[in-house]
Amino acid sequence: MAVTAQQTKELRDRTGVGMLTCMKALEEANGDMDKAVDILRKKGEAKAESKASRETAEGRVAISGRAMIKLLCETDFVAKNEKFQTLVDELVKKTEEEGVEKAREYFDSAQKEYVQSIGENMKLEQAEIVEGGSVVGSYVHSNGKLGAVVLLDGGTEEQAKDVAMHAVAMNPLVANPENVPAENIAKEKEIYVDQLKAEGKPEAIIEKIIEGKVKKYCVDRALSSQPFVKDPSQTVAQYLGDAKLVKFVRYEV
User: Which helix (DSSP H) or strand (DSSP E) does residue 75 occupy?
Assistant: First the structure.
């Protein structure tokens, strides 16, 4: 019988084995998931299988150019392991040079070996190439658990790196105030209305008060309008001057 991509992914999630190996096991088992698991166990995949169900709550973030990845493991001890960090470096380079799909294929092919040698489950949680802007800068925190890429139109790489550091530290919601999603604004308005009514504010002024609160909410949550961490006397936008903040992407373990 034909094996679907969804079946293959389910078996990979259950066993931690590469996609191609999972597909072959499912074909051999005629699509029977439990039989496919048994086939993999008989072929020496049992250790990877036993690890694959365990929670991956630690790991590292890595950035190279416009490429970002987040590789997870079970413990901080392994996240600091030299072999794990080597795999992180290989994956981010593969992402930068060959794209996300090739990086995931490489991880699938290497996962069994690394799980068996390191002794923990691993998961390539996120991987992408950040597109846009004419200037790119990035920052990864010293603990390897936080990182951001910032894209600018104009400005310098140093400015972009500084703003990426700000994004890591302050965890903004969006790049600019106008980027705040409508659903977030609607939710905030609903909360403000209930608060103001509970305070006994007259209906006639509630609308004006809400308008001001929403504006402040958008300003506070947008990277460009936040006080710049390296110089709180100016906003990020003021620090950038004529350069425009286009986009940022932030990863956190």
Answer: none
Strands (E), the chain: 58-64, 67-73, 123-129, 135-140, 146-153, 227-228, 231-235, 244-252
Q: Where is average pLDDT lowest: 35-39, 84-88, 186-190, 220-224?
A: 35-39
C-alpha–C-alpha distance, residues 158 and 59, integer Å? 27
Structure-model confidence comparison of residues 80 and 114, the more confident one: 80
Q: Check residue 208 and give its pLDDT.
A: 87
Domain count, the chain: 2
> 123 with 63, same domain?
yes
The pLDDT of residue 178 is 94
Residue where a domain stops, chosen among 95, 111, 129: 129
**Residue 34 domain boundaries:** 5-52
**What letter does residue 92 receive in the DSSP assignment?**
H
- pLDDT band at residue 46 using 50, 70 and 90 as cut-offs: very low
- Give the confidence band of 42 by pLDDT, cuts at 50, 70, 90: low
| Domain assignment present for 87 | yes
- Looking up residue 110, the CATH number of its domain turns out to be 3.30.479.20
SS3 for 160?
helix
Residue 71 CA to residue 171 CA, distance in Å, equals 20
Domain assignment present for residue 249? The answer is no
**Identity of the amino acid at 123:** K
The mean pLDDT of 186-200, rounded to a whole number, is 86
